[in-house]
Design brief:
The complex is a heterodimer of chains A (274) and B (284). With 274 residues, chain A is mostly helical. Helices cover 73% and strands 3% of the residues of chain A. The chains are: A mainly alpha (274), B alpha/beta (284).
Chain lengths: 274, 284
Amino acid sequence: MFLVSLVLVASLWELYKFLGPEDGGEIFGWPVLPRTGARSMPHTWEMVQRLFDPEVRGNDRPIWFAVAGYAWYTFRMALAGLIIGSVFGVALAVVMSRFRVIERGLLPYVIASQTVPLIALAPQFAALGGNWDLPKWTWVAALGAFLAFFPIAISTLRGLSSPAPASLELMDSYAAGWWVTLRKLRFPSAVPYMVPGFKLAATAAVIGVIVSEVSTGVRGVGFAALTYAQAATSDPAKVYAAVFGAALLGLAMFGIVVAAEAVVMRNRPRDVAA
Amino acid sequence: MSEIRTGAPTPPGTNNVVAVDGASMVFNEGRSNQVDALCDIDLVIGPGEFVSLIGPSGCGKSTLLRLIANLLSPTSGTVLVNGKSAHQARLEQDYGMAFQQSGLFEWRSVEKNIELPLELKGWKKADRRNRSREMLELVKLTDFTEHMPWQLSGGMQQRVAIARALASHPALLLMDEPFGALDEMTREHMQTELLRICAAAGTTVVFVTHSIPEAVYLSSRVVVMSPRPGRITDIIDVPLGGDRSEGTREDDTFYKLITEVREALRASETGGPIVVGVRGIEDR
């Protein structure tokens, strides 16, 4: 199915390139139709071919290899971001579910945190890093975590409050305290709710890392995309090599979460509504 | 059949399993949505008795069960379980509980569900395993040890829930409409099973239901309750003996008792000391 849709997307690309106006078009005076010239829309086969050409002239290293290197670096930062974000998000959800007062006081800030423009924030973060003598990549990972913790905190919070009243009464009848109830009942009940949260968080961590690479100059795949794009006038297909790298990276992160889902949900009924 | 009747004074130190004395329960006291759920309840239950609480919805029968379980504390009055305060009895896990929804944890196998109360009591793994095997034999589910709850039928799930409630061999079993969600055939089968299981273990049972035949078939005494505020209006002895089977359901005495309970329920709704004021209109 994936291959079929891949071919379909490539065909649509080529079809539009064939039919669309060379210099872009206007509908009711709005310049909405993208240009189809070779600079703006290189042929798909050129993009693929470019993957196997050297990154820079006079170097044997093909571009796919270079991009894979950048992507691997970005992947590690995004994974670190996801892990930090998960720990922080889950801890926040537990605290909020334990103390309603904290939930009411904290939740608006949690939501507001996601409206902060990350690109503006990234250099500030990196500047802070200078004081603590931490490598720059930790701050990029932290910004990935900053985006990842949100869907995790929200979905976990919802999951922790999902047990049926009868189940809570049952734990009460065993005189089980808050911690035991959390471990034996609330956490396991939250898992089906947490899975979609983690899926969102995985892609959010990648976006956070790539965006902050651009403004901090950490040399991952986002940085590569930026530098390649500067050469786009002479080498328009090159930038798409970085785009492919970033997309594959996102899929890999998503894949990790899906694999983890298969493990934690293996004994669960299929029709759990999340 | 126990001679202990409602309203009798309860001297401390007797071997009553449950002793409710002058218990009242008011929700949202002093606010506009105040609900008088229970009013001045006296109820004494001796060892080995099977007592059903029956009444229309909203009569507070589930609330009374939760007072005995110490999931709620009475606004006034006292509740003793095994001669201790209900709170102490809950801390010591003196009773097992089963609800209308089996409430099995879907991430635990049948066996692990039954072991849950033992786990919380800090039992060793081998002991837990032995006990859960024993309970599975009792409820005749030995072939489903490793199954997950969602792979079982509703009746089987409810049997697992009963096994879980009895796993620590409590003297008292509290059940809140446990068969309410089952079809009629399964329900009658489960009733016979429950009597067999409780007779084998000598368990005292407090059983909430709104099915008259169910109450009569199971109980040694049927407690009839009226709504708003919940009161005990009648207690009916069920002299069907300890050896009941499917044949009991065809018995003339069985039908007579059903009629008796039904009339007691009607009397509690229409007559009685409850003054129906302006409120009565919206209450239908």
